[in-house]
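To assess whether the prediction recovers the assembly geometry, we first specified each molecular entity separately, as shown.
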Amino acid sequence: MRIVVIGGAGYIGSHVTRCLLDAGHSVTVFDNLSSGLRENLFPEAQFVHGDICHPLELREVFARPSASDDRPAQAVVHLAAAKAAGESMTNPEKYSTTNLVGTINVLNAMAAVGVGRIVFSSSAAVYGEPSYLPLDELHPTDPINYYGFTKLEIERILTWYDRLRSVRFAALRYFNAAGYDPEGRVRGLEQNPANLLPIIMEVAVGIRGELEIFGDDYETPDGTCVRDYVHVTDLAEGHLAALRWIDENDSSLTVNLGSGAGASVAEMVETARTVTGKAIPARVAGRRPGDPAELVATAETAGRVLGWSAAHSSAEELLSTSWRAYREAYGRARES
Ligand code: UFG
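The predicted structure of the complete assembly is given in tokenized form:
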């Protein structure tokens, strides 16, 4: 299939691109490189430097994804978004423009050119505070931050474009994406990370002095928050399975992609110490506003419908693949 991956130079996007290329698809990465990295581009994929806020650029890349091939794209994977929940509460305009307007531009360009399939990066943030666990897709959606609201609104808009413009979609509700390509082929590290695992890694390589643990007085077994960490390679496989499913069923779906298992912050730090052999100093700080005590998915639907499972999402594999990426990147930096 000829697929345009919007945001394909980013952390999750580069893993998705790698997976689609490995499966034999023809991939064009469309990215404005605001957070994506050139070093995440693969030579086998075309690259178009462009922005979802420029509708004409979208139409052009959908109509002619490759310089050597005049045929339009057959599918879009759309990962480009602003994703910091805290920032979305202080700068909602950025989230309105990038996540809402940008995605509407994507859908309008798809409708104009006649591209009929999209895989959309949604988020567990659509659920808000859990009223029961594990979270299934029927759990009420009531986001507690503007970021989650933008993802939910797009899910709703997708159902209308499905109905009115026959755009079939898969909305994938990611839980906590983590880890790096087990074969070490994705080398770009996220800049200024706000998530737990990259921060632990920055402490392990010594560019951060210590980890702050945001609260140890939650109602969880060890008092620290529990999350469902899912390996980015598993997420990437989920996109491939979703595209296949849309193609075979000419239909749309919304599914969780999580490992189905919870791990606490303290457990992740302990495993990181074992995997890296580093002390990883950590200090308990106050709670971070907006953090639910526990978020864990059931991925039963993805298993049953897509035949998907999280094969790489043990804490050991999440941390060992991350450690390889960080050790190699900082090793390279020291040598140069
Ligand atoms: N944490 C720390 N110290 C840090 C960073 C994080 O203790 O320096 C803790 C957080 O308090 C939380 C856990 O580690 O308990 C995970 O935090 P992250 O910031 O890594 O991830 P979140 O669970 O807040 O959110 C992530 C994505 C969201 C997505 C959500 C889905 O960033 O976009 O997972 O579960 F919606």
